[in-house]
Amino acid sequence: MTNHEYTAPVPGLDAVEVPEPGAVTIVVPTFNESGNVRRLLQLITESVPARLPCEVVFVDDSTDDTPEAIREAAQDCPFPVAVLHREEPVGGLGGAVVEGLKAAGSEWIVVMDGDCQHPPSLVPDLVATGERAGAELVVASRYIEGGSRAGLAGGYRVAVSRAATWLTKALFPRRLHGVSDPMSGFFAIRRSAVTPDVLRPLGYKILLELAVRSRPRRVAEVPFVFQDRFAGESKSTAKEGFRFLRHLAGLRTATPLARMIGFGLIGASGFVPNLLGLYALTALGLHYVPAEILANQLGVAWNFLLIEQLLFRDRRAHRRGWDRLGRFALLANADLVLRIPLIALLVDRFGMGALPATALALVLTFVLRFAGTEALVYLPRRRAGNRTTARRAV
Ligand code: GDD
Ligand code: MN
Known about the structure:
Blueprint: E1 4-10, E2 24-30, H1 37-47, E3 54-60, H2 66-74, E4 81-86, H3 92-103, E5 108-111, H4 123-133, E6 137-141, H5 154-171, E7 187-190, H6 206-214, E8 219-223, H7 238-252, H8 256-269, H9 271-283, H10 288-311, H11 321-348, H12 354-378, H13 384-393
Parallel strand pairs: 2-3, 2-5, 3-4, 6-8
Antiparallel strand pairs: 1-4, 5-7, 6-7
The structure holds guanosine-5'-diphosphate-alpha-D-mannose and manganese (II) ion.
């Protein structure tokens, strides 16, 4: 995959020293945390190995001297420490965690931040709870009794985190049943429950990705107090917030039915620019017929932008932007042009009333437009290789 530079683990992480099953691999994603890693390893040393054999794998995308700081601090650790430095930070924080999950050797894996906001003393408890409850995933939650988000800096972050949690739970009521804190970056998962091939991490919310796509069978929670950062600053930015929304949209529209619903909602939202455009153009003195036509293009452009960003983000590569826009606009306008004759047909030939005929025509052209958009704009063109796989799959 990417150019991983596997730094010789300290002390050597070779096959002999990979812990027995029942032990834990602690995966820590780091991005410029040189001021924190020594403290983190200290805290782990104080609270984990006496209760549970462990190894630590840092997955690092830093541009500073974090890998060196880890190597140095690791010399004082009574457990194996490995640094996996990525030259290309594919998938950001979530991508890093997945690399760590793949590299982990033990039965349990605990993922935690590198800035000491997650108390390492909880690592053995997470694993013990998982063993006791027969769970595949154990989430350290700020939102159950005994937990708190004390270290979440500022009212703004708290409000954003609340809203994000609420939205996420509302979008995945079943998959996140029993998970009070899907935004948590601190959790334990059984290695057998991780399915790296279906994961497509994007940014911060790797727990959400795992809970939705890997579908762990039983989930448990342990309360924890989100601490203050030890050193440095949060790496989360507004850009990360937009990435999160894209991630949510991608997760929610993984099936054709969900995509169709998303397509419909985006289409409905297109009325706003459409009507605003109509209002502006007629106010400027344009006749309402050309104004309608132009304003409709505004709605089409709006829909196209949202659909590209939220629904078909991963399926754009096989056609150029103009090609996709042209095809999309053609389908959208064909829908409009075809609707009236279709209504006339339903009324004259099939004797339907104007209202039900219009409703039916709207639904029919909508489904056709959705199917057309999938098939003609975003479906990858078939290559010989694809066909072979398809045949084998049947
Ligand atoms: N490898 C890698 N690559 N690590 C990263 C990257 C990246 O692109 N971005 C951030 N990290 C590391 C940081 O170095 C840190 O160890 C950890 O991921 C969390 O990053 P922070 O920047 O400290 O995140 P936060 O404190 O704002 O957010 C944390 O709490 C949230 C809950 O409010 C994270 O755990 C979030 O996942 C969590 O939702
Ligand atoms: Mn943090």
